[in-house]
């Protein structure tokens, strides 16, 4: 039992690890991949483009950035422009970097149809996929939206966590994901491999036991 005094010392962003409200948060799996492990495969996830997408479809990419996000979390919404800018940056370069956004939220507002509306409104320039079963989020051990993973050429996870060091775009000083991408493109591991993601807890559906 966590006492009141203990609870108030716990950072707010860690609460989803402790509290489960209406199935909103899910405990991390003991088998979740670690830095240096192979990234879990995803297959036949439906995108807002109406097509089926698999990780294997991206075999030509040297680096892949996976972002677990959604339509509803204020943090995710705030990061949408940064995702668009990241995709634009690498589309304009010679680097083969692919950004993929995955929505695992199990609430009606995050349905595929609503995802399509959001993708059209914001003119997303990256794949936006629906993880209907939520299995992909569970396999990655994703907890928050947004939460980022950078995969190298061998599809090993070289970075996991926040996109940058500040939720306010104008105050960002360290771009963790971009640093990890540049390191992976150079065949190196980034100096920082893990940070604490900031955002809302993924709304996992309860599974009957």
According to CATH, the homologous superfamily is Glutaredoxin
Judging from the principal axes of the Cα atoms, what is the shape? globular
Q: Which fold name corresponds to the CATH topology?
A: Glutaredoxin
Report the structural category.
alpha+beta
- Taking Cα atoms only, what radius of gyration do you get, to the nearest Å? 17 Å
What percent of residues adopt helix (DSSP H or I)? 25-40%
Organism: Fuerstiella marisgermanici
InterPro entries: AhpC/TSA, PRX-like1, Thioredoxin-like_sf, Thioredoxin_domain
Protein name: Thiol-disulfide oxidoreductase
GO molecular function, one term: antioxidant activity
Report on the structure:
This protein is of the alpha+beta class and 209 residues long. It is 25% helix and 18% strand. Strands 2-1-5-4-3-7-8 form a 7-stranded mixed sheet, covered by helices on one side. It has a two-stranded antiparallel ribbon with strand order 6-9. The longest helix is centred in the middle third of the chain and has 18 residues, at 74-91.
Question: How would you concisely characterize the structure shown here?
Answer:
The protein is α+β, with helices and mostly antiparallel strands. The protein is 25% helix and 18% strand. It contains 6 helices and 9 strands.
Give the helices and strands, then pairings:
Layout: H1 4-7, H2 15-18, E1 45-47, E2 52-53, E3 63-69, H3 74-91, E4 97-103, H4 112-122, E5 127-130, H5 135-140, E6 144-145, E7 147-151, E8 157-161, H6 176-185, E9 200-201
Parallel strand pairs: 3-4, 4-5
Antiparallel strand pairs: 1-2, 1-5, 3-7, 6-9, 7-8
């Amino acid at each position: 039992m966590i006492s009141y005094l203990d609870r108030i010392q716990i950072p707010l962003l860690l609460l989803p690890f402790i509290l489960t409200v209406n199935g909103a948060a899910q405990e991390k799996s003991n088998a979740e991949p670690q830095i240096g492990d192979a990234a879990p495969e995803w297959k036949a996830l439906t995108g807002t483009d109406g097509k089926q997408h698999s990780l294997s479809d991206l075999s030509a990419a040297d680096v892949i950035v996976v972002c677990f996000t959604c339509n509803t979390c204020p943090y995710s919404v705030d990061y949408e422009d940064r995702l668009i800018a990241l995709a634009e940056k690498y589309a304009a370069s010679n680097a083969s970097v692919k950004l993929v956004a995955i929505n695992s939220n199990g609430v009606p507002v995050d349905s595929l149809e609503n995802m399509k509306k959001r993708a059209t409104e914001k003119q997303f320039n990256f794949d936006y996929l629906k993880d209907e079963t939520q299995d992909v989020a569970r396999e990655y051990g994703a907890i928050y939206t947004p939460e980022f993973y950078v995969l190298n050429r061998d599809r090993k996870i070289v970075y996991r966590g926040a996109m940058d060091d500040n939720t306010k775009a104008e105050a960002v000083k360290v771009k963790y994901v971009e640093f990890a991408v540049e390191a992976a493109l150079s065949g190196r591991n980034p100096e920082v491999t893990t940070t604490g993601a900031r955002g809302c807890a993924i709304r996992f559906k309860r599974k009957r036991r």
